[in-house]
Structure formats: C-alpha cells, structure tokens
Amino acid sequence: MRWSNLFIPTLRDAPADAEAVSHALLVKGGFIRQLHAGHYSLLPLGWRVHNKVANIVREEMDAIGGQEFLLPTMHPASVWQQSGRWDSMGDIMFRLTDRRDNDLALGITHEEIYATVASELTSYKELPQVWYHLQTKFRDEARPKSGLLRVREFTMKDSYSFDVDWEGLDAAFERHRVAYTTIFERLGLAAFPVEASSGAMGGNTSTEFMVRCDAGEDDVVQCPNCDYAGNIEKATSALASIEDEPGPSEPERFPTPGVRTIAALAELGAPAERQIKTMVMVADGDVVLALMRGDHQLNIQKLVDSTGAIELRPATPDEAKAALGAMPGSLGAVAVKDLRIFADITLQGRTNLTTGANEDDWHYRGVDIGRDIAVTEWADLREVTEGEPCSNCGTALDIVRCVEAGHIFKLGTKYSETFGVRVSDADGKQQPVVMGSYGIGIGRNMATVAEVHNDENGLVWPVSIAPFEAVITVLKLDEPTMTAANGLYEQLKADGVDVLLDDRDARAGVKFADAELIGIPYRLTVGPKSLAAGEVELSTRKTNETKTVSVDAAASEIAALVKAER
After folding, report:
1. 144: phi then psi, degrees, rounded to nearest 5
2. C-beta separation of 372 from 335 below 8 A
3. Which of 181, 320, 458, 538 could form a disulfide with 280 if both were Cys (CB 3.0 to 4.6 A apart)?
C-alpha cells in the first residue's frame, strides 16, 4: 500500500472528551471516528487492526475444533421471553417493533439463538461440538465512554460448547481457557484469569481474563505471592475469627438517642466488628434485608447473585420505615419474620452482638444471630479490602484496576432445558446437553492493546496486529530515491511483509511523526545521503532504536524480524 493513496486522517490533538489513552491515540492516529455516543466508525487503519485481532481469535478457535457460524443480529422477543432474559436484561437491551407490531431485539449475546440451532442435535454421538461466530452485538450502555472500551455497538467472538455431561463441559472449558491464554499472548496482552460473577449470563462458574490498565472499570483482588485472583464482585479473603463474649439469654433493648452510625454506636461500647449492620434493599420491587458485620461493606453484585434479582437498589428512608418501623440508624432484623433476610457468612455463629431495635433511638445488645434472627440465606456478601490475607497463602492482597479482555462461562443445562436441547445417551435415555459460553470483544481487545502499548509519541502496536508491519519513509521524491524505495517495497512484499510506502510529498518530520503515531513496528528511512553510501536507516518503534543497514540486506533483515514476532 502507498500512503499517498490511503485515507489516514491523523490529528495534531486528541478529542477533548478522550479520557482513555487508547481513545485519544486511536482518534489521533486516524483509526476511528465517533458517529454518536458509543458508536464508532472504523477507518481503514482501524479495520486492518480489527481484522488482525479477529483472525488471531478465529485461528485459535479453529485450533480447538470450533466451527464458524453467522447468526442473526435481530432476534424475535419470543426466544428471550422463553429464557426469561427479556425482562432480566432490562434497559441494556435495544428493543424495537416491526411494521407487523412484532417485538424484536438487537442481539446482546447469542446463548438463546445457538440453543435454537442446537435443538437439532439428537444423539450423544454428535457431541462434543464447539460453535462460534464473530458478530455485531448491541448493548445500550447508560454511560458509553473510553472509546472502544465501553460502547453500544461492537463485534464479539462468541463460542459455545455442547457436551453430553459435566465432565465434557469441564474439558471444553479448559480447552477454551488455554486457547484464550494463547490469544492474549499473541495480542501482546498480559492477561490473567480471575474468578468472576456469572451475572445475567447464568451458570455456576465463570472466569474473566483481566489486563491491568488504569482505564479499566473492574477492580481485581490479586495475591502477589500465589496465583489467586478474583473480581471484586466475587473475591474472598481469609479473616481472623472473633471470639464472642458470653451474652444474655435474650436481647436487651437500650436507648441510643441521636445515634445513627456505626462509629457513634462504637463510642457507646459496641465495636464495629461486634455490630450487625442492617441494609434495607429493594429487589425487583420487594423489600429484602442484607446483614453485614459493622466494619464490612456490602458488595452489591454479590447480593444480586444471591437474590437473583434483576433490579436491586437501596430502599429510601421512607421505604425502610414502612418495612421495619424506624428510620436508618435504628434498623435491625431481630424477630423480623415477613421479609427475606440475607446475611453475610462472617456473621454465622456470632453471639452477643449489637443491632438496631426497629424503633428510632433504640438498639438491642446481646443478640445471638442464630437464635434471634430468621436468616433466609447465608452468603458471601462482603467486599474484600486491600491488605486482607489471601485465603490460599495468607499474603496481603492487592486491588488493581483492570480491563476485562475475555470471559468464559459454564452454563450447564440452563439453556438446553429451556429450549429442549436433548440428546439420547449411550443407554438411550434423553439428557439435556451441557453448555458453555465463551466471549472475547474484538474492538475492546484492540483498544486494550492500545492502552498498554504506547509511548509519548503514539501507539506501539505488536507486529501481530499492527496495521502495517513496516513502513518505508521516503525523504526525497527524486527518481533515484524512489527507485530504491520501490525496490525495497517490492522485496518486502515478496517476503510476505505487510508494508506501507510513505510516498507523500511532505516534510520528513511529518512523516516520522505520523509513522510513530500510528505505531508501525519497523521503519526503513530512504534518503539521498544514506543511499550514496549504499545504506538506509532501520528504526524499531518499540525501542526507538535506529541503525544503518545496507540497501541489499534491509528487506531481508526486516522480514526476519517480522516473522520472528508474528
């Protein structure tokens, strides 16, 4: 390709709303342009990178036996209603009505659609299967931002495994885990697996692949000593046990005028770790209680996972008073019988605790949670904090900001049972197919690479996904220089190098700056002075090192460097 024929609209300045480094550089480098919030046009450079990312993903899916499909993006509401996710997806799903008043949706993911196809499977002899596609998805993000990191329209690779039993799913999950590790290595991303919440996808096990990045939106709890890592929405830690002092045979009510906080109650002789914090929440319109140790914080996603709620929010003070009879600060769960009560497991077995008495300015002490509170469900609801000991090795845990680069789920039989995906087993009995789901966002990974591979001059793409692997920068457009440049260009093409010839009539400084901005890994600079000595300059973008090489050896040296890094 010749630069003079390409559309590469580089900019001097980044857009004012670019918060993420990747957003700024992809716009400045002429890779993307925003159409409207959360929707981006991929320009020629952006499309080249996007396709190279997609091809790496495709190659690794094929390597584990994946078969590529292409399924519709517009779906009838009926399949989502059948799975129950028409309601559970909430406002994030784009919905529309056609001219016949049929309710439709733009695909947010494709579990339901693949299940309808898989309903044609009949025998265990047809399993296992791995199906995948690279397809446009739509999610009506409330606050799209950070360029391609958080958008409303994007390309995702979804793959789905179908097995006759859970052992088969375990094997498929492991094959995907290994394939994902390889994908991220090829993309130049130091991604690491973490325990994660399955959320709206369903299933009982999921693993996210995270990349440390300041522009990320996920907090990950990570042990610096062992391999433990978990999303803050799933993470656990080891806490020292607390020995409770003997308490009375029943709760004792005592006055606490003006006391509304954990700290204020602690000043009256009830340390935070000996208090029960009662939070009134509204889950899908119903009031529920969440009980925490006084010095712990509730993780909302953990409560969502425990309740199965589609929508969860804190109750207003008036809603809390209507449910329990008091305003926040005096609330408790002692003797409450008509509400679901979810209690954090750190409270299990605790005695002689203090909590609100459901009357303004009164509390109970001497509360035995097993005796005095009718807990509906015990669950891990606590948010881990930095410095707590690792459950595996006891080392102080770190909390790091990350971008989610991929996510794999063990769905089990949730969708196969709903859509009648059954096969006869070796004994002739009908069994629901056991499914897994595995996703990687193509544009998101392109942006993540841009986040971690850049310097003060611009992008520094890995060879594997760079828009071009090498650029020939011509300093003077006279006949001898262009003849030499064209010769190198043809040699590099013949050697299989994806090469760009910068034949623009522009100043050398502009050409150098543009090549650095768009992040081409290798540059050959061809000018009359160096040619007179039979040489050209070879520059490496990653190290910013430049050396002279002979004209005759330049193409083969670049070809060798490129092939070694693909």
Report:
1. -60, 140
2. yes
3. 320
Residue type (1 letter), 114: Y
Span 362-392, pLDDT tens digits: 999 999 999 999 999 999 999 999 999 999 9
Question: How far apart, in whole angstroms, are the C-alpha atoms of residue 360 and residue 259?
Answer: 9
- The enclosing domain of 309 has a CATH number of 3.90.960.10
User: Which token pair is 255?
Assistant: 């006055």
Same domain, 438 and 492: no
Instruction: Determine, yes or no, domain membership for 4.
Output: no
Q: Alpha-carbon distance 40 to 35, whole Å?
A: 5
Asked if 452 and 405 count as a contact pair (C-beta separation under 8 A), the reply is no
> For residues 280 and 239, what is the distance between their CA atoms, to the nearest angstrom?
25
| Residue in 69, 73, 116, 66 with CA at minimum distance from that of residue 96 | 73
CA distance 522 to 558: 7
- Report which of 247, 275, 377 is spatially closest to residue 331, judged by C-alpha positions: 275
pLDDT band at 232, cuts 50/70/90?
Answer: very high
Q: Is 104 found in the same domain as 186?
A: yes
The pLDDT of residue 41 is above 90 = yes
Structure tokens at 386: 């930095």
What percentage of the chain carries pLDDT values higher than 90? 94
- CA–CA separation, 41 and 50 (whole Å): 12
**What's the mean pLDDT in 285-307?**
96
Is 514 within 8 Å of 527 (Cβ atoms)?
no
pLDDT in tens, 78-129: 999 999 999 989 899 999 999 999 999 999 999 999 999 999 999 999 999 9
Going from the C-alpha of 183 to that of each of 6, 60, 120, 209, the distances in angstroms are 29, 7, 31, 11
Is 27 found in the same domain as 160? yes
The β-bridge relationship of strands 362-367 and 353-356 is antiparallel
Domain that holds residue 526: 468-565
- Give the sign of the dihedral formed by CA 462, CA 466, CA 469, CA 471: negative
Whether the Cβ atoms of residue 154 and residue 148 lie closer than 8 Å to each other: yes
User: For residue 232, is it within any domain?
Assistant: no
Q: Which of 287, 265, 277 is nearest to 346 (CA)?
A: 277
CB within 8 A of 66, min separation 6: which ones? 130, 131, 132, 159
Segment 527-537, tens digit of pLDDT: 999 999 999 99
Question: DSSP code of 497?
Answer: -
